[in-house]
Amino acid sequence: MASPVSGLQRVQAPLRRSLASAAVGRSYATIPSAPNSSEPTPASFQPSPSKPRPTYFKDTSVAPFSSFLAQPEEPLLASEAYALRTAEVGPAGRKRTITRLPSWLKTPIPSPGANSDFAKIKADLRGLNLHTVCEEARCPNIGECWGGSGGKSAATATIMLMGDTCTRGCRFCSVKTSRAPAPLDPHEPENTAEALARWGLGYVVLTSVDRDDLADGGARHFAETIRRIKQKKPTLLVEALTGDFAGDLDMVRVVAESGLDVYAHNVETTEGLTPYVRDRRATFRQSLKVLEHVKRVKGKEGIITKTSIMLGLGETEDELWETLRELRKVDVDVVTFGQYMRPTKRHLKVEKYVTPDEFELWKQRAMDMGFLYCASGPLVRSSYKAGEAFIENVLKKRAAGNATASDALNQALVADADNKDALQ
Q: What is the mean pLDDT of the chain?
């Protein structure tokens, strides 16, 4: 029978072997503080003769560092820069695709608290019970015009006379409509002149709603406002953007002879699209007659005529060419092109977002045809600051030229009289 001691030894043998191997591999927990110590350095702390393995990344999909350095970017192609983006909107199961507004049509939202000129103009308008087409037509340039960066001389607003309710219902316009608008405010001409005198502007645009309910279409009210403005500030240049007065050319004459500097009337679109875009009482030919009659009354050099065309309603290139030719036939001086923007879902859809390059092309074409000036761009409207600044300079030069010619004529008459006296 085996001894119990030998059995215990067999059981403890593996434990003794593991402890023995552990003792051989034991090392110090810390490196000796004194390198010059006489005690031998443990073998486990001897420096390794081999170099450390360099660090590298196994994930080769990570962009190299050079990709994060500033490098010149290649310019986008026109097709890429002007590509329209779409988005899916609506609840699950009923989603629909919409086209997002192009980047070149986005403008900052104006804030009355951020600009003193903007706040002052708005306060004056409300205090004097005046209306502006800037607000009623939801113009995208309201922040730029009302808060002009050059102070009062740069800020401007287009005053809308005869109330905020129109008797016509054009399919592109967001102004309120009614068959029987409120009566005219008899104090409006004086209030308008007073407000403009406060602002200290150099150029102002007056427009109005159509008032087919009035016998004269509001022409005399318009003319009286212009006369009051000129009385308070004769140097202020006035542009009148009028309706067609239902084709009554006598009323066109009343406004043209009131002392204004620029007579504007918008054809809005091409002749072919006019019945679908404008109110049925407005026609393309009737608008041409208005612009033509102004020149007959005041002469070609006596007044500047101006009109505006919206793009993006489905017009063709040939139709636009024909429209420009018709405008030049009646000696229109200034034309503007702007993108049609749908005010609400009740109005006409946008057929096309015209690119800035196309607007620039039509500007060049208009200038080549002999127009005095053309403002063309996605956010350009009929009353646009850039155009007004140019027209203001043209009018001042014409006035200076007329004054110079008058002085020269007077000098010639005096010299002629002196010569006659000498001969006698």
A: 77
